[in-house]
Specification:
By secondary structure, the protein is of the alpha/beta class. About 40% of the residues lie in helices and about 15% in strands. The protein is built from ten helices and twelve strands. The strands form three sheets. The chain has a seven-stranded mixed sheet, sandwiched between helices. The protein has a three-stranded antiparallel sheet with strand order 9-10-12. The radius of gyration is 21 Å and the shape is globular. The mean pLDDT is about 90.
């Protein structure tokens, strides 16, 4: 097998060297309980406050508007629950796009009103605006950009349409890769998406946004994330985001150029392929395509054998047994789907080698099924 190329950064970025260095240092100084008044507790509290300040600045909020959770998924679930509970006198309806993360769909549940998207994955803004104006709407929820296809959503414009309805934004796919959108009331993100450690999520709540966690309050994170805080991981997450943002302009320009090149080569060299998502209004590091007459799981496995780590949002994999709801909502192929996402460690040689290997693999898999 040739040298491996990790092309699944949208699932998890390799840990940034700045995060690794900070984590190794912090485990020796940030292990104590930061709510205790002894020296060790005060030291941990100071470190936690420093991490929160760095993360808050990166997101564009005050430190007292930022809460740390155990994951991006947890941030979504507790955030939507707290927003909805605070608005129960108004109603319980959660208006959301059809391509939100499963955590949003699960949290909205039967009270959710789903708004469709176009073939590029962008929400129908007119339909969304109409839906949020109806009586009984507690929360509006729209992701900043899609985690499967990279398409951005018009958050600032949607925020204006929401008026007094709080807007929840899942920014897990975009933080560290794209400017933070404006106009939201609450925002969630996840550290492992920007090169921080897993197990750290962010929940930013703008001042004036009413929340009511529907569980017993405790002394940590205003009850939004009960339990002992992981101070070393929080510091590592902050170090990673700070470092990633300092590299963002150069990396994003590089990634956008390489993805454009890959988009062109795949469309040219692979017959019966559909490249999905918005070609321009998108995250710089994500490319998704679907190959007709090819099983997505087989394609991911074959690419892995050639040294490429990619992911698939395709239909009927052994883990989900159902098609990608994102691709289905867009009206594109849900089978034979592959997502390529670049990390800070990806090289141009990796992209070129992937472009050269892919057509032969697709041809071989099609031949095996008689196509």
């Amino acid at each position: 097998m040739s040298e491996r190329a990790y092309l699944d950064a949208a699932s998890a970025e390799p840990m940034h060297p700045a995060a690794r260095e900070m984590l190794l240092s912090a485990v020796d100084s940030g292990w104590a309980d930061p709510v205790r008044l002894h020296h060790e507790g005060r030291t941990a509290r100071l470190l936690l406050d420093n991490a929160r300040a760095v993360l808050a600045q990166a997101v564009g909020v005050r430190p007292d508007e930022l809460y740390l959770t155990t994951s991006g998924t947890a941030a979504i679930e507790v955030g939507l629950a707290a927003l909805t509970a605070a608005r129960r006198r108004v109603g319980t309806t959660v208006v959301h796009s059809a391509v939100e993360h499963y955590a949003v769909l699960h949290s909205a549940g039967d009270a959710g009103v789903e708004i469709g998207v176009d073939i590029r994955g962008q929400v129908d803004q007119e339909a969304f605006a109409h839906a949020v104006r109806r009586p009984g709407v507690a929360v509006a929820a729209v992701q900043s950009a899609n985690h499967e296809v990279g398409t951005r959503q018009p958050i600032a414009a949607i925020a204006q349409d929401c008026n007094d309805v709080p807007l929840f934004v899942d920014a897990s796919a975009s933080i560290g890769h794209d400017p933070v959108p404006t106009g939201w009331s609450m925002l969630a993100a996840s550290a492992h998406k920007w090169g921080g450690p897993a197990g750290v999520g962010l929940l930013a709540v703008r001042k004036g946004t009413r929340i009511a966690p529907p569980w017993p309050m405790d002394q940590r994170e205003d009850g939004l994330s009960p339990g002992f805080p992981d101070v070393p991981n929080a510091l590592a997450a902050a170090a990673a985001l700070q470092a990633r943002l300092s590299e963002a302009d150069e990396l994003n320009k590089q990634h956008r150029t390489w993805i454009d090149e890959l988009r062109h080569r795949i469309a040219t060299d692979v017959p019966d392929v559909e490249v999905v998502g918005d070609p321009d209004d998108r995250l710089p590091h994500i490319l998704t395509f679907s190959c007709l007459y090819v099983d997505g799981e087989a394609l991911v496995t074959a690419l892995d054998a050639e040294g490429f780590a990619v992911s698939s949002g395709s239909a009927c994999t052994s883990s989900t047994l159902r098609p990608s709801h994102v691709l289905a909502a867009m009206g594109v192929l849900t089978h034979g789907n592959v997502r390529v996402s670049l990390s800070r460690e990806t090289s141009h040689e990796d992209v070129q080698r992937f472009s050269a290997v892919l057509p032969g693999i697709v041809q071989r898999i099609r031949a095996e099924v008689g196509m």
